[in-house]
UniProtKB/TrEMBL annotation:
This protein's name: Putative oxidoreductase
Domain of life of the organism encoding this protein: Bacteria
MF term (GO), any: nucleotide binding
Organism listed in the record: Klebsiella pneumoniae
Entry keyword set: Oxidoreductase
Length: 112
């Protein structure tokens, strides 16, 4: 089975839910965890045998295939765009942005 190596950005409540889901799924591996609070990223990463990294490293690392964005809503659009530009598969918690216009703009820029 092909395994997707994930970087999780955001280690708050919903990030913890996604980390547990990734850990249970045979086709995925939680490889990296990033958060603006490094100590939270470290704690969640340790729980699942992942590495705590910076957001930039999570997005740009060749050691991952996909980025799961579970950070605060105001950061979703920017992170989604950055991860897509880095060539990663992107999974983003909803909403992409509180502004429908901004959400549409981001989607138009990242979809082929």
């Amino acid at each position: 089975m092909i395994c997707k190596r994930f970087a999780l950005v955001g280690s708050g409540f919903i990030g913890q839910v996604h980390a547990a889901s990734l850990a249970r799924h045979e086709g995925s591996a939680l490889t990296m965890v990033a958060d603006t609070a490094p100590e939270r990223a470290q704690a969640l990463a340790a729980r699942y045998g992942a590495r705590a990294v910076t957001v930039s490293e999570a997005i740009h690392s060749d050691a991952i295939d996909a980025v799961l964005i579970a950070s605060s809503t105001p950061s979703h659009a920017e992170l989604l765009e950055a991860a897509a530009r880095a060539g990663k598969a992107v999974y983003c918690e909803k909403p992409i942005d509180l502004s429908l216009a901004r959400a549409r703009e981001v989607v138009e820029r990242v979809l082929p």
